[in-house]
Specification:
The chain is mainly alpha-helical. About 50% of the residues lie in helices and about 5% in strands.
Amino acid sequence: MGDPKKQRKKYDTPRNRWSKDRLEEELKLLGQFGLRNKHELWHQKTELSKFRGIARSLISKTPEERAKRENDLLLRLKKMGIIDQTAVLDDVLDMGIEDLLERRLQTIVFRKGLTRSVFQSRQLITHGHITIGNRRITIPGYIVPKAEEDQIIYTPQSKIANEEHSLRQSLSFVAKEIEIRPPPRGRRGRRRRRR
C-alpha cells in the first residue's frame, strides 16, 4: 500500500525520453500553454491515455455491457468541455493533448483576456487573484467544467478587481490597440519603409 504521507507520481514518463521530435513538441507545448515543467505535461498525457484506454476497452465489449459505461465516460468528458455535446466514443480516441490543456484554468483565464500572457495568468491564479463563482482557486492546472467557465472573474478582495489597477489599464489599452490597428500593407503584411 505504501506510506499515506508520501505522495506518488501521478504521471507516466515517456519510454524514449531523449527523442528529438518529442522533446521539440513538448517544449512547444510548454511555451504555448505556460506549463511550469514537463511533469505537468506528462500528468495531462497520462489523464488523456486513461480516457483513451477506457474508450478502447469499451469498443471491444458487447453492446449491453458497453452502453452504461460509454454514457458515463461521454457525459464526464462533455461536462469537462473536452468533447462536443454531439460526440461519440470514436471522438474520445481522436482527442489530443491540446484538447485537455485548453481546459486548464490557466489557459482559460488567458483566453478570456484577463491577463496579457499565460505565464501571467499562472501567477495571478497561484497568488489567489482568480475566483470561480465564490471559490478562490489557486491551482493553475484545475480542469474547468463547461458550466463554470462563465463564472471566472477576479477575486473581489483583490486589488486587481479595481478598474483603475495598472494591469486592467494595460489590458484595455492592448484591446483598444488591436481594434484600431490598421490592416497590413505590402507583400508580407508589413508596412514598407520609404527611403
